[in-house]
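On clarity, I found the account of how folds are encoded harder to follow than it need be. Since the whole study asks how a given chain folds, the encoding of that fold should be made plain. For the editor and my fellow referees, an illustration may be useful. An entry of this sort, consisting of the sequence and the corresponding backbone structure tokens, reads as follows:

:::
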Amino acid sequence: MTAPRGTVLVIAEDLDPTADLVVQALAEREVPVMRFDLARFPQHLDLAAEHDGGEPGWSGELAASARAVRLEEVRAVYYRRPGLPVIAPEVAAEYRNWAQSQALVGMVQVLGSLPVVWMHHPDVYRASAHKPGQLVAATASGLGVPRTLLTNSLARARHWAEKIGGPLICKPVASASITVPGAPPTLLPTRRFYPVELDESLEMTAHLLQEWIPKAFEVRLTVVGDQMFPVAIHAGSDAAMVDWRSDYDSLEYEPVATPEEVANGVRRFMAHYRLNYGALDFAVTPAGDWVFFECNPAGQWQFIAAATELPIAEAHASLLQGATR
């Protein structure tokens, strides 16, 4: 007889306040948790998984110095931006990348094959994390999106900008930071500009250009399972009006209602990617239309919960506990 599954694995960096909130919410429900960072494997974490060729799944044990859990007892996995496995320094340099890939794939694929809830499996995250594909999925789901051009051709960009006939924005195609010597890594914000400003620098790499959407306000819609937490973000500065991440101190937050047609589109979008969590960003125009910008399948939500007291951590706990989908 199979033992009842009870332990939630929380795989995150040691200093992660978002993961802290989820662990706290699970503890309040007396749900057992084993938390670790992948950076602890394989030096400070042991995995012994066995497939006997008969039963369909893996059995075995995951053990740290002070805690161990049977794989058969894992209830769910909360996988939130962990570090990469750290290989012992005595391993020769030419073998370290190989050893790291073996550790990463071995751990994640064994855990990923367990018949439990994941938030999110890395394969799901990779499939859902990028803006070009999201725009196609959002449109197919019935959500409004901005007119968009992805190009490295200045001539094509200028021709497209003439058709738009107004201000534009430029945003990164994928999340990536710029590192300047002596400074911490920096993420590029969305930038508003006019077509006359297009120049040869556009041809250095791929650029994602969109029409500027007039905004009454923006919405961060946090989705956890079947629950939606829509919060209006009111910008208090010019920089925040373009990209609210540029000036957190100027922001005000207000829970709002999601129009039913938007909620239905979001459900279709989430189902398309098999996501049970997402942080979706919308602009709401002065006419009241909701325009989808993007979805971060590992987006931050603790600042929204702190500002509004919405039970987002509790929703995570419910999903991981199995009390809701």
Observations:
- The chain has a mean pLDDT of 93.
